[in-house]
Amino acid sequence: MDPSSAGAGGNSLATSSCGDAQKRRVCYFYDPEVGNYYYGQGHPMKPHRVRMTHALLAHYGLLAAGKMQVLRPLPARDRDLCRFHSDDYVAFLRTVTPETQFDQIRSLRRFNVGEDCPVFDGLYAYCQTYAGASVGAAVKLNHGTHDIAINWSGGLHHAKKSEASGFCYVNDIVLAILELLKLHERVLYIDIDIHHGDGVEEAFYTTNRVMTVSFHKFGDYFPGTGDIRDIGYSEGKYYCLNVPLDDGIDDDSYQSIFKPIIGKVMEMYRPGAVVLQCGADSLSGDRLGCFNLSGKGHAECVKFMRSFNVPLLLLGGGGYTIRNVARCWCYETGVALGEELREKLPYNEYYEYFGPEYSLFVAASNMENRNTNKQLEEIKCNILDNLSKLQHAPSVQFEERIPETKLPEPDEDQEDPDERHDPDSDMVLDDHNKPLGHSARSLIHNMGVKREYTETETKDQHGKRLTTEHKGPEPMAEDLGSSKQTPPADANAMAINAPGNGRNEPGSSPK
Ligand SMILES: [Zn+2]
Fold it and tell me: Is 422 a member of any domain?
């Protein structure tokens, strides 16, 4: 099957430009603090990679006026996180500290915090930041002001309702999808991280309002789930797809299965919005991964999804060879914008990381591809067969839905300027119908959403736009103000290095 023939969109991918010359309105969420969070010595997860990505974007000129809206996220609050996570788990994350954690051994065990998911300084603020960015990005798409929203600090797909897992504490993806479900009847989730997107799959396993599709290494590999036979349950049956892959998959093999499957999914499911988790540990040479995708091969998934012109949320995820992660996500931001970026990396504060080639492109290696064409064909047929059993674009009964695009009356929100969500608008997560005893069935009972944002666009001394999105009088104004007093040499690190954050300062120079 010709991959380009699958689906209504995606036919322009053979062109040399970014698939579709038509411009997209893009917003990009970034918090200058995020690069300071530090999982601990030797831990492979390094939020610093998001700051490196940002530096590349800045030096490629993608943060300049007219390219995309650059937004600083509002931190997610307890109640935002509790739309998916349990109250006691969120309370634990909020209160646990590196110093006191050993007084709570039972809780550490119960919530799976300690080993892969260590307690570190600022842990809760970190969760609030990356989750707030993903939810904020979903809100932007719902408002219809942007076609593509990006949060490279998000995509932490392993977190469960009451459990940390695989370096993930709160599941910003589930929270963002819940936000999108306020407006859209169907949301498609696609996961190209090398690991199975288990937390998102589990959250929506029994509903047809979210279709999850995960491409991952399967077989003696974390987290161990993602069998091709796991296809959803109850009303969610056939609304979950798992594509198990083996070591060394290259660009051609990957796209020979990605495009036909996703093309068919788009045609059959017709989602109102798409969330693409762009985990970069599927790239060649990843510290924890074993695939052989080049940066361009990875980005082809972004290009393909962009071509459908459906509201698109791009999230980060895994990625442990951080010079590759930064290059990949920078390149993919260019793809979102429809810009071909020059191969030669511009000079930037992390330039040493990228030697000796100083190229934007992550190259594949000569490692063996253990996925045979025959195996891939079988997997593809198996999954297309499941897709054929899918009810064509199921309609969903809505009750008293207030479209997100309708902004609330101005006076409704002014009673509490700190409110992000109207308390009445919170969704109820209904736990009945659990398959396997642990899946959360998500049903939205009250679609009324009242929210108002004002945006303050600020320029730093390089003229880079940094917009604070808020609705209160001046939250975050202090940070932006202090950023102007830092030396111009390191615009991206300025607010980050503001005094008094009390956090470790990892990796600010190459090691
Ligand atoms: Zn991963």
Answer: no
